[in-house]
Amino acid sequence: MSGIATYTHRMVELLADTNTRILDTRKTAPMFRMCEKWAVYIGGGQNHRFGLFDMIMLKDNHNDYAGGITNAVEATVKYLKENNKNLRIEVETRNLKEVEEALATGAVDVIMLDNMSLYEMSAAVKLINGRVKVEASGGITEDMVHDIAKTGVDYISSGAIIYSAPNIDLSLKAF
């Protein structure tokens, strides 16, 4: 947990001159999610979804299976209404055309820019123009986090802050 908090803090510090926040993901060790997410929080990161119950995330495979983002979002909105649920909807996008489609639904709260280039991210942020929150995701490393933040995204999600955090050997023995 110390390693996760320390690595998260290092990533957060790299963004100190921006408005972008570091998010964790659900990629955690079995039975340790609560502890690992707590470590992210202690390190200054922001917890994203805790589980599948607290936000709808439409990933690329969901959108493809539904026949596109519009169909996936419409089915989700219908499900939420029929089941009297009030959950935010996030949609994963792979290109600017999908960003436009997600915006056109008028029902999305967050658009994830997955594995996009810095140029594409900048263009997407301009296209979105503050209408919804924007999250960058996919292979995020310490070396690129500041450049990604400069595109104007609201969030950068990183599973690496949990699963790639170094272990720290701590001892309470007196010397």
Task: Give structural notes.
With 175 residues, the protein is of the alpha/beta class. The chain has a single domain, classed as Aldolase class I (TIM Barrel). Helices cover 42% and strands 14% of the residues. The chain contains eight helices and six strands; from the N terminus they run αβαβααβαβαβαβα. It has helices at 2-14, 33-42, 60-66, 69-82, 96-105, 118-128, 145-149, 160-163; strands spanning 21-23, 56-58, 89-93, 110-114, 133-137, 155-157. The chain has a six-stranded parallel beta sheet. Helix 5 runs parallel beside helix 6. The longest helix has 14 residues, at 69-82. The protein is globular and about 65 Å long. The two termini are 24 Å apart. The model has no long low-confidence stretch (mean pLDDT 92).
